[in-house]
Amino acid sequence: MAIVSLLLLFVFVYMIIPYVITRIWGLGVTMRGRRGRQIAFTFDDGPDPLHTPKLLDLLKKKRIKATFFVLGGKAERHPELMRRIHREGHQIGIHNYSHLPNWLMSPRHIRNKHVRRSADIIERITGERPTFYRPPWGILNLGDLFALRKYRIVLWSVMGWDWGKKSRNKPLKERILDQLEPGSIILLHDSGDTWGAEPDAPGRMIASLEEVLDTVHIQGYKCVRADELLHKRDGLSNEFSEGFRVG
Ligand SMILES: [Zn+2]
């Protein structure tokens, strides 16, 4: 009985409380920006040798800068792709060393073996140390909010639903435009080998993305990196001032 109570307490403190704090109240994390008609496209789970180059080609053609939340392990295996992402002006953020949920690990382990380790790898390859972090599936434990306080934790406001079977039901354009508003941070994936994803899903996403980019352009949106959307690049950003600045 005591074990069951302890387990329930653990689930409540470690999983449910941080879920409510971050995903429902939005505290300690960033889910959107507030700047005019700017939006930010973000791509998780790469770099992927098959899909990422095609995505980079499209972004180059459309002259759009985006943000890639990469896995440290894949960055290590594909340094040339990392250099290309960086060289072409995109932002690189961290998405753990491997795609493991933070609920199964201690905050210390996550900070040292996933976030710092990935930051070291990315810095070694690109010369620039990432400061933005997005946990796999957006899952945080309570200790992460303290252990990772030096990093800006960025989630999303628009879910592209591009990774699995659901992505076949409704065109990507509709899925994104239905939810889009100024300051949106859009979540998509440039790798299909994560648990629960379909291997060819990124191919479908990239094939549909051009139309999405053309449409948001016509609607007057400017696509920027997440750090630009959140003002970090011009040195004005911090967690609290952002809320007071509109337009
Ligand atoms: Zn992911």
Question: What would you note in describing this structure?
Answer:
GO terms for molecular function: hydrolase activity, acting on carbon-nitrogen (but not peptide) bonds. One of its GO terms (biological process) is carbohydrate metabolic process. The protein has helices spanning 2-24, 52-61, 72-77, 79-87, 107-126, 144-147, 172-177, 201-218, 226-229, and strands spanning 38-44, 67-70, 91-94, 132-133, 152-153, 158-159, 185-189, 222-223. It is 40% helix and 11% strand. It contains nine helices and eight strands. The strands form two sheets. Strands 1, 2, 3, 6, 7 and 8 form a six-stranded parallel beta sheet that branches. The termini are far apart. Residues 234-247 have low confidence and may be disordered. It is globular, with a radius of gyration of 18 Å. It has one domain: Glycoside hydrolase/deacetylase (TIM Barrel, Alpha-Beta Barrel), CATH 3.20.20.370. Helix 6 links the parallel strand 4 and strand 5 (152-153). The protein has 247 residues and is α/β, with parallel strands linked by helices. The longest helix is centred in the first third of the chain and has 23 residues, at 2-24.
